[in-house]
Design a protein that fits this description.
rod-shaped, two-stranded antiparallel sheet, 50s Ribosomal Protein L19e, Chain O, domain 1, 2 domains, mainly alpha
Protein backbone atom coordinates (compact mmCIF):
# COMPACT_ATOMS: atom_id res chain seq x y z
CA UNK A 1 0.00 0.00 0.00
CA UNK A 2 1.18 3.54 -0.78
CA UNK A 3 1.33 5.78 2.28
CA UNK A 4 3.16 8.68 0.62
CA UNK A 5 0.32 11.13 1.30
CA UNK A 6 0.19 10.10 4.96
CA UNK A 7 3.94 10.53 5.25
CA UNK A 8 3.71 14.01 3.69
CA UNK A 9 0.90 14.94 6.10
CA UNK A 10 2.98 13.75 9.06
CA UNK A 11 6.02 15.69 7.81
CA UNK A 12 3.94 18.88 7.57
CA UNK A 13 2.38 18.27 10.97
CA UNK A 14 5.71 17.87 12.77
CA UNK A 15 7.69 20.30 10.62
CA UNK A 16 10.34 17.80 9.52
CA UNK A 17 11.47 16.25 6.23
CA UNK A 18 9.90 13.17 4.65
CA UNK A 19 13.03 11.11 5.30
CA UNK A 20 12.67 11.55 9.06
CA UNK A 21 9.12 10.16 9.24
CA UNK A 22 8.97 6.43 10.02
CA UNK A 23 5.84 4.26 10.28
CA UNK A 24 5.74 1.21 12.57
CA UNK A 25 4.99 -1.84 10.36
CA UNK A 26 2.33 -3.61 12.50
CA UNK A 27 0.25 -0.41 12.81
CA UNK A 28 0.03 0.48 9.10
CA UNK A 29 -3.75 -0.13 8.98
CA UNK A 30 -4.34 2.53 11.66
CA UNK A 31 -2.06 4.95 9.85
CA UNK A 32 -3.91 4.30 6.59
CA UNK A 33 -7.19 5.43 8.20
CA UNK A 34 -5.73 8.70 9.58
CA UNK A 35 -7.16 11.71 7.76
CA UNK A 36 -6.42 14.83 9.81
CA UNK A 37 -3.37 16.29 11.45
CA UNK A 38 -4.91 15.52 14.83
CA UNK A 39 -5.13 11.84 13.85
CA UNK A 40 -1.43 11.93 12.97
CA UNK A 41 -0.60 13.57 16.32
CA UNK A 42 -2.56 10.91 18.20
CA UNK A 43 -0.75 8.12 16.33
CA UNK A 44 2.57 9.79 17.17
CA UNK A 45 1.66 9.81 20.88
CA UNK A 46 0.68 6.15 20.69
CA UNK A 47 3.99 5.27 19.01
CA UNK A 48 2.65 4.24 15.60
CA UNK A 49 4.61 7.07 13.94
CA UNK A 50 8.20 7.90 14.82
CA UNK A 51 10.34 10.90 13.91
CA UNK A 52 13.98 9.95 13.35
CA UNK A 53 16.63 12.17 14.96
CA UNK A 54 18.63 14.63 12.86
CA UNK A 55 21.89 13.23 11.59
CA UNK A 56 25.00 14.99 10.38
CA UNK A 57 26.35 18.45 11.11
CA UNK A 58 22.98 19.94 12.01
CA UNK A 59 23.22 18.13 15.36
CA UNK A 60 26.22 20.23 16.43
CA UNK A 61 24.88 22.98 18.67
CA UNK A 62 26.40 26.38 19.36
CA UNK A 63 27.89 26.83 15.94
CA UNK A 64 25.60 29.65 14.89
CA UNK A 65 27.13 32.64 13.18
CA UNK A 66 27.56 35.43 15.66
CA UNK A 67 26.36 38.91 14.75
CA UNK A 68 29.56 40.80 15.50
CA UNK A 69 30.72 44.14 14.18
CA UNK A 70 32.51 42.59 11.21
CA UNK A 71 29.41 40.66 10.10
CA UNK A 72 26.88 43.49 10.26
CA UNK A 73 26.39 45.20 6.93
CA UNK A 74 24.29 48.15 6.00
CA UNK A 75 21.94 47.83 3.07
CA UNK A 76 23.59 48.86 -0.21
CA UNK A 77 20.77 51.22 -1.07
CA UNK A 78 21.15 52.99 2.30
CA UNK A 79 24.89 53.47 1.77
CA UNK A 80 24.26 54.87 -1.69
CA UNK A 81 21.63 57.30 -0.39
CA UNK A 82 24.03 58.55 2.30
CA UNK A 83 26.75 58.99 -0.33
CA UNK A 84 24.45 60.94 -2.64
CA UNK A 85 23.26 63.25 0.17
CA UNK A 86 26.76 64.03 1.36
CA UNK A 87 28.14 64.48 -2.15
CA UNK A 88 25.40 66.94 -3.13
CA UNK A 89 25.84 68.90 0.08
CA UNK A 90 29.62 69.19 -0.35
CA UNK A 91 29.42 70.11 -4.03
CA UNK A 92 26.89 72.81 -3.22
CA UNK A 93 29.25 74.18 -0.58
CA UNK A 94 32.13 74.18 -3.09
CA UNK A 95 30.00 76.03 -5.66
CA UNK A 96 29.04 78.66 -3.09
CA UNK A 97 32.69 79.26 -2.12
CA UNK A 98 34.03 79.13 -5.66
CA UNK A 99 35.75 82.52 -5.47
CA UNK A 100 37.94 81.45 -2.53
CA UNK A 101 39.98 78.91 -4.55
CA UNK A 102 41.64 78.32 -7.88
CA UNK A 103 40.28 76.03 -10.58
CA UNK A 104 42.97 73.47 -9.88
CA UNK A 105 42.13 73.38 -6.16
CA UNK A 106 38.42 73.12 -6.93
CA UNK A 107 38.96 70.16 -9.28
CA UNK A 108 41.15 68.49 -6.68
CA UNK A 109 38.48 68.94 -3.98
CA UNK A 110 35.73 67.65 -6.29
CA UNK A 111 37.80 64.50 -6.95
CA UNK A 112 38.21 64.02 -3.22
CA UNK A 113 34.47 64.47 -2.69
CA UNK A 114 33.75 61.83 -5.31
CA UNK A 115 36.19 59.45 -3.64
CA UNK A 116 34.61 60.02 -0.18
CA UNK A 117 37.71 61.66 1.28
CA UNK A 118 35.56 64.03 3.35
CA UNK A 119 33.38 62.55 6.08
CA UNK A 120 31.28 65.68 6.61
CA UNK A 121 30.89 69.32 5.65
CA UNK A 122 32.90 70.41 8.68
CA UNK A 123 35.75 68.15 7.53
CA UNK A 124 35.65 69.88 4.15
CA UNK A 125 35.67 73.31 5.83
CA UNK A 126 38.73 72.36 7.89
CA UNK A 127 40.48 71.15 4.74
CA UNK A 128 39.62 74.34 2.87
CA UNK A 129 40.86 76.40 5.81
CA UNK A 130 44.29 74.87 5.29
CA UNK A 131 44.44 75.79 1.57
CA UNK A 132 43.18 79.38 1.88
CA UNK A 133 45.46 82.06 0.55
Amino acid sequence: MNLGKKKALAARTFGVGLERIEFVKPRLEEIKEAITKQDIRDLYKDGAIRVKPVKGKKVIAGKTKKRTVGNVRKKVNKRKQEYVKLTRKLRKYIAKNRDKMTDKERKDIRKKIRNRFFKSQSHLKDYMGGIKK
